[in-house]
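Section 3.1: Structural characterization of target chains.
Under the original work plan, the team committed to producing a structural model for every single-chain target entering the pipeline before any wet-lab resources were allocated. The record below documents one such target. The sequence was received from the expression subgroup and is listed exactly as submitted; it comprises 343 residues.
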Amino acid sequence: MKKRCRVIYNPTSGREAMKKDLIGILDIMENAGYETSAFATTPEKNSAQNEAKRAAEDGFDLLIAAGGDGTINEVVNGIASLDKRPKMGIIPAGTTNDYARALKIPREDPLAAAKVIAKGQTVKMDIGQANENYFVNIAAGGLLSEITYSVPSELKSQFGYLAYLAKGAELLPRIKPLDMHIEYDEGVFDGQASMFFVAMTNSVGGFEQIVPDASLDDGKFTLIIVKTSNLVEILHLIRKVFNGGKHVDDSRIVYVKTSKIVADAPGERMMINVDGEYGGDAPMTFIDHKQHIEMCANTDQIPDSAITAENALAQDARDRFVHEMEQLPDQHESDDDTTTTEK
């Protein structure tokens, strides 16, 4: 019996480039032995999620999410709760494409991404759950949520990663701490913090050094709590991120591996960002489902030049940002050798 593949694509992602490449994608998957069909998402709420669930229950062998991180998240949410889950592939066409970066999927060429899927190489990936919702890359509370909600969708489409950098620079001076209560496998954090991250891969907002030791299938989140809200200190921590991920041992950071997290900000509202979208308010419980969905990935490790290519304008902005960080006074370098403080 011939295998079946359903391409669930967002026709508005990537400046509508996906529609142009759709016939080529279908042809690649047909040649790989799949009877392949396509579904274009609509503005209706949970369009991709509902179609993913329908296709999975109908017995499709492979679902391909073609679009941005939001489309990927919806397809995962459509199948993650099912007992029988099809394999899943992704063809990126969004803004940051963090998940594609982690799986070494070409991010600027939909046809090249389809060819990776056609090779049939897979990884059994961890999937996160935030209360009732599932996620594949990151959840967060604090500054990251504000940045995501504050960047208009049209700017994300036109300027991509550059739009996040610009908004991040604007919001940094306004950071304020929250009283957080965060429980994890080996302890509890009680105190003030400006933000926390629950990461599943090594790529967060286009940066691959925030979680330098990330594992895709070990059943563990990487929990990062940023305790400081001082602007100068945060800029120094950013510089450490760029400098080989040295922030992980900084005393102003809690950096731990854990399979479960409960996060709250007693007495204050803390909005939670789940895969780039509003996922509800704290309190929120996060659970890591180990090796839950079999994902197509480029396990042969495609050349670095093919997976780190970025829009030239965004790359220039990053270079200038790093240069500005390097000009800051070196007053906190003595913290490099300190160990993580957990409370």
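Confidence is low (pLDDT under 50) at residues 158-164, 302-314, 331-343.
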